[in-house]
Here is the input.
Amino acid sequence: MSGDATRRFHDGRYESVLRIDGRLERVLAWQRSDGTIVVHAESDAAVDALRFQLALDDDHSDFCERFRDDRLLSEPLRRLRGLRPLRVGTVAQSLLRAVCGQLITAREARQIERRVIRALTPRDPATGLHPAPTSAELGALSPARLRSLGLGTRRGSALVRVCRSGDLERWKSAPTAAIVQRICREAGLGPWSAGVVALEGLGRYEHGLVGDLGFVKMCSAMWGRPVDGAETAALLAPYGEWQGLASVYLLAGRAFVPLAAAA
Here is the structure.
């Protein structure tokens, strides 16, 4: 799931295109056999941006220690220790991803996201990749144009309204709870969208992917009854300020979650 219109992972190398000081810059990253991550770019600004996208400076030790004996997380943590959620290039792209991902398959959502980004942003001729879209670029679209790219009118209208409210990069200086509240106020968005923005756009772990279909199925299996999206908040609540990272581990490692034992 690392690939999109802005980046690719091929032959052990992560490649992306970033907008730095008004120009496109290619960045690369790979992992050596000793675990060291090498980041290659022309500018320090690009290196810093890629470090953020790869979450290289995050310390998850407290999370791993606190929940190593958790009935649901213990096995995913053992098997996937060190897993880090990839982040996107702009907060606006994370909102686009959240809006695209509602009520459809992940494959369909990624296809719509690619079409929108390719229609909006310049193509780097050397790599064929595009930079992440800005709030201004997304806000300049009409819902009708988004509909022609595959995004439903209701969701497209919500995306445009939020992006026209100002540069979403300013959300990085606001408390997570305030951002979640702002997103959930918008018709057509909700807690799951807020979780995508928090994880992939802001790089924060306090808010989880409440309502994710994977959690709906997980809770239904554990509780022995049909579950709606809002109820999945109870699954993540015990993880406190780590709900977002718990979401990532539970979904990536759901094959190892002992659903029957947790019933």
